[in-house]
Design goal:
By secondary structure, the protein is α/β, with parallel strands linked by helices. Helix content is 26%, strand content 25%. It folds into 2 domains: 196 residues, FAD/NAD(P)-binding domain (3-Layer(bba) Sandwich), CATH 3.50.50.60; 111 residues, FAD/NAD(P)-binding domain. The protein is built from 6 helices and 20 strands. The chain has a 5-stranded parallel β-sheet with strand order 3-2-1-7-20, with helices on one face. Strands 9-16-10-11-12 form a 5-stranded parallel β-sheet, with helices on one face. β18 and β19 form a beta hairpin. α1 runs parallel beside α2 and α1 runs parallel beside α6. The protein is elongated. The two termini are 42 Å apart.
Length: 317
């Protein structure tokens, strides 16, 4: 069972299906990159719309016998072991369907939590961006504003300064020491300490800039925001997977070890569910590695089961 139908989940499923495993992918149909017009920074597929990548991925999983099912996971729990002594998990969907699986790969991805600034969310993925590698080239040379969300936004500003000479940093309550202010000044980054009240639009609905608490309007074509990233955990509570926090309150994801294996036997996690900064290429690679590791573990379990059955058929001396 693969929970999550993004790059990580589909690539993990592909590896398992090609190893002749019975694989079902549960896809909620709500990918993180849905607002984006294209995927960038992934060689060969650079510039491809996200829906097209997912369509191709589903098609390839299916051609090896894998199944892709659309639905929301309502609960996941470890069931009683089967007669072969191996693990069994029961995954229930919100529509009442359920599936039993020997192993589970969690590739649910994450959700981006934006600051509660009026008007900000409606521009997410267009005038409001977060990743200089995903969106930077497309907003190069534009007047960009950094809406600070914490200490991590300081380095965020340095990355976006590489893309434009017109950069304004809105501290929005984030403390800047004198050294940081001097570094910003040396790079021509303008600092605004007055809090941002709201995001304002042009007549055509595109982002026009921000209005500050004192009423002043600062024109900007783009706002860059370092979101808080939180792994999607809905329906997975029964697995009791360990979690880990990123520094500076940047986010929270699942904890795992080599190849995505977790402390919960039989459960793996991959990509943004555990590596919050992974782009599409890294996500796909993590899914492939986890899928290969799951197949390896299952191969050992199959052999153990066959040996036990063979020994059970041997008359006692």
């Amino acid at each position: 069972m693969v929970i999550g139908g993004g790059a990580a989940g589909l690539n993990g499923a592909l590896m398992l299906a090609r190893s002749r495993r019975s694989v079902v992918v549960i896809d909620s149909g709500t990918p993180r990159n849905a607002p984006a017009q294209a995927v960038h920074g992934f060689i060969v597929l650079d510039g491809t719309p996200p829906p097209e990548i997912l369509r191709r991925g589903r098609e390839q999983v299916r051609q090896y016998g894998g199944r892709v099912v659309f639905g929301e996971v309502a609960s996941t729990e470890l069931a009683a072991p089967s007669t072969d002594g191996d693990l069994r998990f029961t995954i229930a969907l919100a529509d009442g369907r359920s599936v039993t699986a020997r192993r589970v790969l969690v590739a649910t991805g994450l959700r981006d939590v934006l600051p509660e600034v009026p008007g900000l969310a409606e521009h997410w993925g267009h005038g409001v961006v977060h990743c200089p590698y995903c969106h930077g080239w497309e907003v190069r040379d534009e007047p960009i504003g950094i809406l600070a969300t914490g200490p991590a936004s300081i380095h965020h500003a340095l990355l976006f300064r590489q893309l434009t000479e017109d950069l304004t940093y809105f501290t929005h309550g984030t403390h800047l020491d004198e050294d940081t202010r001097a570094r910003f000044a040396a790079r021509g980054i303008h600092t605004v300490d007055t809090p941002v009240r709201e995001v304002i639009n042009n007549e055509d609905g595109t982002l026009a800039g921000v209005r500050l608490a004192d009423g002043q309007v600062v024109a900007r074509s783009v706002l860059a925001v370092a979101t808080r990233m939180e792994a999607r955990t809905g329906g997975l509570e029964g697995l009791k997977l360990p979690m880990q926090d990123l520094p500076d309150n940047m986010g929270r994801g699942f904890a795992c070890g080599m190849a995505g294996a977790t402390e919960v036997r039989g459960v793996w996690v991959a990509s943004n569910a555990t590596d919050l900064a992974a782009q599409l290429g890294a996500a796909a690679a993590a899914g492939a590695l986890a899928g290969a590791h799951i197949n390896s573990v299952l191969a050992t379990a199959d052999t153990d089961s066959a040996l036990a059955a063979a020994q059970g058929e041997t008359p006692a001396l």
